[in-house]
Amino acid sequence: MTDALAPGSCPALTYVSEDFEPDALQEVSDSSKAKGSQVDAHRRNEVLRFFDRFDRFDGFDLVDPG
Description:
Helices cover 33% and strands 0% of the residues. By secondary structure, the protein is mainly α.
């Protein structure tokens, strides 16, 4: 995967988390479903498991947001 990146660049990931403000997320989810869309939120540990499953992420260091 690193071969496709320009030198010095890095991939970034954004996801909807249910770790914070679960009530607000439920409102957004309900509103989206009423309009025909679906919002799937994930906890941080679920997202980290995604990276653990794939060898193609070897060589990348995961950093905290901010």
